[in-house]
From TrEMBL:
<feature type="compositionally biased region" description="Basic and acidic residues">
    <location>
        <begin position="7"/>
        <end position="18"/>
    </location>
</feature>
<dbReference type="InterPro" id="IPR013500">
    <property type="entry name" value="TopoI_cat_euk"/>
</dbReference>
<dbReference type="GO" id="GO:0005694">
    <property type="term" value="C:chromosome"/>
</dbReference>
<dbReference type="Pfam" id="PF14370">
    <property type="entry name" value="Topo_C_assoc"/>
</dbReference>
<dbReference type="InterPro" id="IPR014711">
    <property type="entry name" value="TopoI_cat_a-hlx-sub_euk"/>
</dbReference>
<dbReference type="Pfam" id="PF01028">
    <property type="entry name" value="Topoisom_I"/>
</dbReference>
<feature type="region of interest" description="Disordered">
    <location>
        <begin position="1"/>
        <end position="117"/>
    </location>
</feature>
<dbReference type="GO" id="GO:0005730">
    <property type="term" value="C:nucleolus"/>
</dbReference>
<feature type="compositionally biased region" description="Basic and acidic residues">
    <location>
        <begin position="34"/>
        <end position="47"/>
    </location>
</feature>
<dbReference type="GO" id="GO:0006265">
    <property type="term" value="P:DNA topological change"/>
</dbReference>
<dbReference type="InterPro" id="IPR014727">
    <property type="entry name" value="TopoI_cat_a/b-sub_euk"/>
</dbReference>
<feature type="coiled-coil region">
    <location>
        <begin position="592"/>
        <end position="646"/>
    </location>
</feature>
<keyword id="KW-0413">Isomerase</keyword>
<keyword id="KW-0238">DNA-binding</keyword>
<dbReference type="GO" id="GO:0006260">
    <property type="term" value="P:DNA replication"/>
</dbReference>
<dbReference type="InterPro" id="IPR036202">
    <property type="entry name" value="TopoI_DNA-bd_euk_N_sf"/>
</dbReference>
<dbReference type="GO" id="GO:0003677">
    <property type="term" value="F:DNA binding"/>
</dbReference>
Length: 701
DNA sequence: ACGCTGACTTAGAACATGGGGG
DNA sequence: CCCCCATGTTCTAAGTCAGCGT
């Protein structure tokens, strides 16, 4: 959002003492507001901390700049319900600024400006590791969850067979859920309709006038929903603001929680509203009603010495209250579709998430140290037979193609998707081309996203190699793996031989758990998914540092736009590797058309200008104009290229989950102090604060 | 050894926002 | 100024994998 405009370079920690950033980037003012809102808690000090605890707490505080004490007083007012009030501290993060933070934190004179909110972050990476093995916290206090409003019957009547039908509120509720999805793709799917009808007809009862779905007309309800939406849209700015503020106010107590002696943000304190289940792909349960969740369905977790979350629905109570300090969840319930667990966790920017995120990348870096050895082992194993051959062949695929492990799934309950271990014969096509053997993969992976990839040897012909490189559905075996690839193909041939049916498993002796057991032997803590993290991060690091002695280095460094493009191209390689995709916008074609027209128009203008130039007296001026226009055209054209290239590709998924943020931070610092906020948005900056602090320009993955 | 429960990460779509260009 | 689109945020589904109980 708003923050993107100030590009501030991140200081390279080494060279410049680093000026501000902290202060302007993290407005302390925010702190104040948040504190007051949440008010809820209480810092553990007040509760008779153990000696050890208090010590540690003290330390934390000190670091943060002792501001705690001064704010305590204010929380009180908002929170009647709690007996203890906590000083919700907002700590401003950076060292240098902490002192000032405290001072103005309270007074808060100014702040008329828009106010970019950057959440205060507890800088866990500056604390020494305090907790005992396995413990996630020593104090946890929060206000639980917030429920969606009860269903309010609107009384709009649907029709059946042309007749107006009255529904009970309960019936109306699910009819309305259906109406709400009338313009989605689900509405046309048989499974969706069938599942919905099953539940709807049950709710209608045996002798209801409505006998089938075909003759139901939900249009009146659809119209009603549209009208409601319009009404909402038509509100004035002020009204909208008011509503927003009211919402913020009610939600404020849930936004932050107290973890040990600091505040953290809750990631998802809103209980999921009832609705029709929207599974991805051909999900057998799409259209089923996802029921209302009651407090009685929810288990709460907090520390024993905390004030437990109070149930906000009168007459209700939590299912139970537990104190599991080896767990990071604040609450959970089971959904009514598959009985799956839904957890309430802290946000991505929290210390708990940050720490495990860092551990994830450290593990991937650990793999980097062992990967040569492990690959050697895999190479060996490719030549064996039976289970060992299967294990190593699968691992080769996981390592080289970055595919997922592939747990078994029950296709009566879930969509039929696969990963490595669950690949079936029908997903593989073996072939040959002028370079040698090929394997074509075509299957649905996680989220029913298509994975289509022709894996082959790199052509000698540079022209062809280039072509293949630009084709996202082709990948070349990486250098040094050619021989292994041939072996893998042979193995795949025997694993898919015609004694097997298309629906049989390729790796019939494998499952993810045995595979991971095998991996654990190769390196402690190693599992299949680590390869994805490792290969993604390694690829980014390699790609980014090609800039180091790139022949066109200076042209990439010419300005932010060109440098950003270089970064995005590297990011793109990773997205392709990991098969991260996104839906192409419905208006994509028309958008491209528009761009074409614009470009065409510019070309015409250019031609015109050139013609005029001949007869013009002020040639110099014309020349300038022409150059200008040419520049605009080329800009438009590259923009179009980018648009086409990224049409179905998501860069964000890898950024958020797979790429060690320190790679990016270091690269930015190293190459012209490139503004980090060009590549990381506000959320990522918050999420990766630890990395921003940690990586200097020499850091490498 | 294996199936199931539980906890946590990863994922794309839906939705909201707001800035730039006509 | 308005609208369109890009980008950011929220939502919740769908994976991975450990550990437990049988």
């Amino acid at each position: 959002m708003s923050e993107s405009d100030d590009d501030k370079p991140l200081k390279s920690s080494k060279k410049e003492p680093k000026p501000e950033e902290d202060d302007d980037d993290v407005p302390l003012k925010k702190a104040k507001s948040s504190k007051k809102e949440n008010v809820q808690s209480q810092v553990k000090e007040e509760n008779a901390p153990t000696a050890k605890e208090s010590k540690k707490k003290k330390k934390t505080k000190r670091k943060r700049g002792d501001d705690d004490d001064d704010d305590d007083d204010d929380d009180e007012e908002d929170f009647d319900t709690r007996k203890k009030k906590a000083p919700a501290k907002k700590e401003k993060s950076s060292k240098s600024s902490s002192k000032s933070a405290k001072t103005d934190g309270k007074g808060q004179p100014k702040k008329p400006k828009k106010e970019v909110k950057v959440e205060p972050v507890y800088e866990w990476w500056k604390d020494e590791q305090p907790l005992a093995q396995g413990k996630k916290w020593r104090f946890l206090e929060h206000n639980g969850v917030i429920f969606p409003p009860n269903y309010e019957p609107h009384g709009v009547k649907m029709k059946y067979d042309g007749q107006i039908i009255s529904l009970t509120p309960e019936q109306e509720a699910i009819a309305t859920m259906y109406a709400a999805m009338s313009r989605t793709d689900y509405a046309g799917k048989d499974v969706f309709k069938k599942n919905f009808w099953k539940e709807f007809s049950e709710k209608l009862g045996k002798n209801h006038a409505i006998k089938d779905l075909e003759n139901c007309d939900f249009q009146p309800i659809v119209d009603h929903l549209d009208a409601e939406r319009e009404k909402k849209k038509a509100l004035t700015k002020e009204e909208k603001l008011k509503i927003k503020q009211a919402k913020e106010k009610t939600e404020a107590p849930y936004v932050t929680v107290v973890l040990d002696s600091h505040l953290e943000k809750n990631g998802n304190f809103r209980v999921e509203p009832a609705g029709l289940f929207r599974g991805r792909g051909e999900h057998p349960k799409m259209g089923q009603v996802k029921g209302v969740i009651q407090p009685e369905d929810i288990t709460m977790n907090c520390s024993e010495d905390a004030c437990p979350p109070r149930c906000s629905l009168p007459g209700h109570a939590w299912q139970s209250l537990v104190h599991k300090d080896e767990q990071t969840w604040l609450a959970f319930y089971k959904d009514t579709i598959n009985g799956e667990f839904k957890y309430v966790f802290l946000s991505a920017g929290s210390s708990l998430k940050g720490q495990s995120d860092r551990e994830k990348f450290e593990k991937a870096r650990e793999l980097k140290k062992h990967v040569a050895r492990i690959r050697q082992r895999i190479t060996q194993g490719l030549k064996s037979s039976g289970l060992e051959m299967q294990q190593n062949t699968a691992l080769w695929l996981i390592d080289n193609l970055a595919i997922r492990a592939g747990n078994e799934k029950d296709t009566n309950e879930e969509a039929d998707t696969v990963g490595c271990c669950s690949l079936r014969v029908e997903h593989i096509t073996l072939g040959t081309d002028e370079e040698g053997p090929t394997i074509y993969f075509n299957f649905l992976g996680k989220d029913s996203i298509e994975y289509k990839n022709l894996v082959k040897l790199r052509p000698k012909d540079e022209e062809k190699a280039k072509e293949g490189e630009e084709n996202p559905c082709v990948s070349f075996v990486r250098e040094g793996e050619e021989k292994n690839f041939r072996r893998v193909v042979e193995n795949m041939r025997s694993l898919t031989s015609n004694s097997k049916k298309p629906s049989d498993d390729v790796f019939d002796q494998l499952n993810t758990s045995s595979l991971n057991t095998y991996l654990k032997d190769l390196m402690p803590g190693l599992t299949a998914k680590v390869f994805r993290t490792y290969n993604a991060s390694f690829t980014l690091d390699q790609e980014l540092y090609k800039l180091e002695d790139h022949p066109e280095k200076s042209s990439f460094l010419r300005n932010d736009a060109t440098q950003l493009k270089f970064y995005n191209d590297a990011n793109y390689q990773v997205a392709i590797l990991c098969n991260h995709s996104r839906a192409v916008s419905k208006t994509f074609d028309s958008q491209v058309e528009k761009m074409d027209e614009k470009i065409k128009g510019l070309h015409e203008e250019l031609a015109d200008l050139k013609k005029k130039k001949k007869s013009a007296d002020n040639k110099e001026q014309m020349k300038k104009k022409i150059a200008n226009l040419e520049e605009r055209i080329s800009k438009q054209e590259t923009q179009k290229q980018i648009k086409l290239k990224l049409a179905g590709v998501a860069l964000s998924t890898s950024k958020v989950n797979y790429l060690d943020p320190r790679i990016t931070v270091a690269w930015c610092k190293r190459f012209g102090n490139f503004p980090l906020n060009k590549v990381f948005n506000k959320s990522l900056i918050t999420k990766f604060k630890w990395a921003i602090d940690e990586a200097d320009e020499d850091w490498r993955f």
